[in-house]
Records
---
Amino acid sequence: MEIGEYLRGLRGRLMPGRLGLPDTGQRRVTGLRREEVAVLAGISVDYYRRLEQGRERNPSVQIIESLARGLNLTTEERRHLFRLAGYSPPVQASADTVRPALAGQLGRWHDQAAFVLTGTLGVLAPNVVAQALFAPLTHADNLARAVFVDPAGRTFYRDWEHVAENTVAVLRHNSTLVPAAEFDPFIEELAEADDHFRTLWARRHVRGKTHAAKRIRHPEVGDLTLEYHALDVPESPGHQVIVYDAEPGTSAAEAFALLRLRAHGLRAAAAASVPGADVDSLGAARPRR
């Protein structure tokens, strides 16, 4: 599909009111007029007409960004527009929050440890089981810090060296997904904190986070071997949903079940300690209204 065809399709289904334009009078066409798109994007009507008609085939990155911003495109629409123009979508600032609906869904997974992982391996919206799993770590809010800064990390991860190598490779992979202004200071922090991180970073290995086994030594339930799967969050580049679970019928499954029971028991106890409280999807007690 050419960029002109895509823009015509977008223009035809976008309503003026959605973009803050007056929606009055009789319209000969459905959606926006070319003149309105040009105004929203801050470009000339003649240039936009040539772009839509296919007579302008090499728009600049600035023009594409102006169109994406002016038309208030979704993340996926924006990416597609950039790709049609022959560009890789610029990296957007990563959010440090999770949609409430997604956080609620993670909280309803009572048998797995689930959370959202950012491009710098920050842990967002951990459910009750994930909180219990990472409780022994001082830096449970960031898995890279847990590996290289947290003293507990070297005993928590039974294959620490392997985990360290993978962690750095994943960060290398994510370096194109996180804005440099956010990513570079984080890497500098780890490099200053740990010599081994500097050595591994210099190797430039790249590996995306997909699925693997993690061997963990948990002080409450003993040794665990858990499989994790990573699922991308389309509307948040660099973010992934991570789900940990144990293979059924194994000793790890028994230990993981014990951890879950303790986690949910603590959640219930927390709720009971607050008179008239419910327990929300992330395990925090909150007063009833």
---
Amino acid sequence: MPEDAGQLLGIMSSISDLFGGKLPIQDLYGPEGSHIYNNMMGDDRAEVDDFIRIAKGHPGPLLELAAGNGRTTLPLLEAGFQVTGLDSSPHMLQRLADKLREPKWEKYTGKLDTVESDMSDFSLGRKYGLVVLGMGTVWMLDESQRASLFRCVREHLTDDGRFLVTLPELPALSEDGTPLETRHVFIGQDSTTPVLCIMTEYFDQQIGKRLMCILAQRPENGAVGESTIFAHWNHLLYPAMLEKEVESAGLRVISQTEATATRVTTIVDRGRRRWVFEIGR
């Protein structure tokens, strides 16, 4: 069950009320949600080309945090890097293992090690020339967890190594703190059949959080069948905050560049920017 389950906000709260509060709420990165997330992202290269461009000047080995379904991992393997993929969700790591059995990727099996661990508290006993964290995943952590993440990264980074992290920024968030909600509709796929997905993001500056929800509805004989809400809470973080926090951990921001737009980000990133931070010791 996701953090703050039952405390839905915005249109998802209204939809839950419409169904009498009986719609099941599951973690977006759980057994079923991970299938939908995997299908939604597909082979989108959000930040991947930016990571590879920077990484070429800092040959591995490479540690990918929140490796998930391998959206970033597999292109990094294809680019010639030896990768350690770390993720706290066994379900997401299973999606990655499934992909490594596909003919296109099976030849890279020996170049990838996976670790099931928390990205804010890990100890792998080795140093890496590159550590990457994509898709604004740093939003998943609160301030104390981020401090622990940055300490762990520093401990695992070589002296001339680089930490690459992406961070979305929403200029549309109003100065008076009024919540902002975005909505997207797409056809997704769970573990069995196609499903109609309504994705919402609710940004609340007052509590410093973003709630991402996907209402998945399975069609059955021309009618709406089983419906489930997949949800996950994130913690808002702004570029200036990120820079101060990494400096507190003994790291420094070397560059901040805007990420190359992709299929998914072109649709989802309306009203926001996506930055790639290059961080060193």
---
Amino acid sequence: MSKPLPLVFTAPRRGKPPTHLADLDLEQRKQTVRDAGQPAFRADQLARHYYGGLTRDADQMTDLPRAQRQELVDALLPELLTEVRSIACDAGDTRKTLWRAHDGTLIESVLMRYPDRITLCVSSQAGCGMACPFCATGQGGLQRNLSTAEIVEQVRLAAAAARDGALGEPGRLSNIVFMGMGEPLANYNRVLSAIRQITAPSPAGLGISARSITVSTVGLVPAIDRLTAEKLQVRLAISLHTPDDELRDTLVPINDRWKVDEVLQAARRYADATGRRVSIEYALIRDINDQPWRADLLGQKLKQHLGQLVHVNLIPLNPTPGSQWDASPRDVQDEFVRRVRAQGVACTVRDTRGQEIAAACGQLAAAGA
């Protein structure tokens, strides 16, 4: 019998975001258009502009009657996020944006260009209730869940920015990682709805391949099993950070509910159902979780539970201001990688991005506008 979800999963209520096309099913969209005095097919036209044209600018919607364009946009495509500021680094290849929602909530997204792809790190909540002590977002606590449309809108805005050359040369947004602010699986229904719209073929959705989407979790076992049952081709990433329960109880407090072995067993069920390798996220913290014996134990546990269906993403810690936590020295990092690989488990060090622009999740929002 699965354990009950902890109360921390319930987000505090703030102002409800305006109703948006991305929050509605097809019939609800049509009814909203009818309520505005227009024929139902206008809903499809608006969807084509939003998902296919990446716009909510009424002036660009020349197939709509001029007199009603703005009214229709206001009814189904209200402004959800306004840019507070954007900062760039890595020779223009990384761009972090702080957004303000309708109720003043601040959230972040990070757009990154790599040689073979353009990736968006997207937020699923404002703040986070998981309380991991080394994470800037966790330090701030949970404010509220984001709506489906607020998640989709981050992707739409990033896709338009990439297309319009925000990272230099114009390009196509190809990859999405749910590794921004929040625990995605604690906002399960809205994240799942957003994924379906992100992956639906244009013009019904943004047309990004499910295999190019990664959903990260600290290890909410019942939610992992729900995601397994969906049979999606998204990649699952587990924020493990240590292989032993004693330390993980401190680093990832939800470990009080679901221990390391339970989380890895759920990850194996996901891998078996989808055929996709699971990514293990491991933030390497100096003198905390970087000991050689922990590298050995990590490799052994992953080999036991996941075999070849796993890859370790070692993350050099991006320290937050005033934090006691720091990144491990390079020689310690290299030895950790060597020991994990010696157990027959793939292990690489993630390319660090944006340290000079506070790119760790929650740092920009914590600094405010």
---
Amino acid sequence: MNQLKAKIKYLKSFLKSEWDFNDYPLETWKNPNAEQNDLEYGAKFTNWWSLVAHGESENKAVENLKKHLADFKKNNTEIPRPGANVPIEYIESDRIEKNEHIAVEFFDKIIGINFYDCFISDLSSLHDFDLADEQTLEKIESEFGIVPKDKDYFLSDIFEQINKKASG
């Protein structure tokens, strides 16, 4: 049924030159295993796998998806056609791979998961793991002797900072 709605939205999109939120085929769901209230519901557009939002209610997830779409439109010149299949694009991970030995130890000591059990790009940050807090920063300083410089807390920057301290 979702694919049929997507096809209809896709065909209708040729009647307009610009699309708004309501032009996209919307899917919502409840996460039965969500451990956090703000992840209990999800929302996305059919066939657009990378634009997903969550919230403590279905309405909040949809509202967050609207914000994500607005941000996407603001930061991109090409906007996917409603209903079209939007391929997943991976961000480079060259800087992470260069410091893999640090990443493995960092994930074990700071994040508490196996580095090899997830995909991490050069733009992954402590924020992605909900760890951009004072306690985590203190733990990083204690374990690695550095204080992350940038408030974005990109892991690639942190790993390079740790590598520089170890080499210097």
